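Problem 12. The chain below contains 129 residues. Write out its predicted structure in token notation.
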Amino acid sequence: MTGHVSKPVPGKVVFAGLAVLALGIAVAVFLAIGFFGNERTPAQTQSAIENGKALAEANCSGCHAIGSEGDSPNPDSPPFRTFKDKWPVENLEEALAEGIVTSHDNMKMPEFEFEAEQIGDFIAYLKTL
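Solution.
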């Protein structure tokens, strides 16, 4: 008895090749968006930092020290410069989007809910401290 070797079906080979090609293109697009879509120019980065600082001044400086030195007006409110020593500041993104609610020993912090761009700006500023 001789073994029977089946021949590849041309349509299936072409379809499989196109499927692999499409998958490769999709992966490349997602990688490009993830790796390159979020890059900022130096001017955009500086603008984000300035916007983040303005947000901190407007919303937080009444209780927190928002700069690289100095004491917080409310001793129970930690200075912003200590945040990155406690946790990665990127971890604040979700809390800022949903609205941070916390209490200090003698007072409740007001609830803040930032827009997506504001969150990026605020985080960019915190990273400079």
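Discussion. Residues 9-39 form one domain. Students who got a different answer should revisit the alignment rule from Section 12.3.
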